[in-house]
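> run fold SDR family NAD(P)-dependent oxidoreductase
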Amino acid sequence: MVANMTGKVALVTGAGRGVGRGIALEMAAAGAAVVVNDLGSSLKGDDGADTSPAQQVVDEIVQAGGRAVANGDSVASYEGAHEMVRAAIDNFGRIDAVVNNAGNLRDTLFHKMEEDDFDAVIAVHLKGSFNVSRAAASFFKEQGSGAYVHMTSTSGLVGNFGQANYSAAKLGVAGLSKSIALDMARFGVRSNAVAPFAWTRMVDSIPATTPEQIKRIEGLKKLVPEKIAPFVVALCSDAGAKVSGQIFGVRNNEIYLFSQPRPIRTAHTSDGWTPDSVAERVFPMFEKDFYPLHRSGDVFTWDPV
Ligand SMILES: NC(=O)c1ccc[n+]([C@@H]2O[C@H](COP(=O)([O-])OP(=O)(O)OC[C@H]3O[C@@H](n4cnc5c(N)ncnc54)[C@H](O)[C@@H]3O)[C@@H](O)[C@H]2O)c1
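> ok
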């Protein structure tokens, strides 16, 4: 196998369910020893922990002849993140791949969003990705290798309704990934972001009332979470050695490479600008290239299967 993980150790956060569970199982099938992290929280992430989802995935891996341990720390805790990396070192002697996958949702329209809705989502997705990445960074630097994969979302890359907290966090994750790729390239460390599309409890929480929304949800139900895993494993393996600083998407059998923002128009005047000259010259000049207020679903309109 080209994209092999034999002899490597992977930490997958939020791996008790959904996309993360698929990645943990695929990592083990590819030969990796796996730390299966999951706090076992509700979708909102505001209840007590139940670590049984992580343990169930560990049991599956062990029954199939693989090596895995469960960890129930929260990615939102800096100390907890260090504990899960320590679980990799203590049990398997090293760490080679970190998949920042844990996630929660607190969807609400922006003008109704409470401070706690914002903080809770940033704490898990953005700060959590920082926490776990930072905890592994010292080991990656020391051994001169390592691969990060961070789950981003088209809610951040494109836009979505009622998800200002989540969109901000997920676009932040893309920026975090790119910066890690830049800063740690000198140590042979790679970092990439992946926007998954999968039918999990996270998507099941999207309200659907109109016939169009109900039709879209029926399409989303065809998206199998396990389909994200082969791409993530390939990225973490040595076969992905030349791949860093990129943003990808995976939707069933489709794999996307996303663009990254670059200037598309420029306006210049040797005299400088006044508010009036901006209004009179720049807005009309740029207008035809403005992006519509697209949501993710407006961009991914074709049948996923
Ligand atoms: N499903 C999709 O279509 C989709 C789309 C875009 C992005 N994503 C991203 O993919 C990732 C996985 O999502 P999913 O759809 O599998 O959701 P999911 O709810 O099925 O799984 C997320 C897991 O993360 C765990 N978790 C939550 N908070 C945690 C914490 N603080 N510490 C450790 N674990 C925690 C939960 O217990 C849960 O098992 C998330 O980052 C999500 O934002 C998913």
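The radius of gyration is 20 Å.
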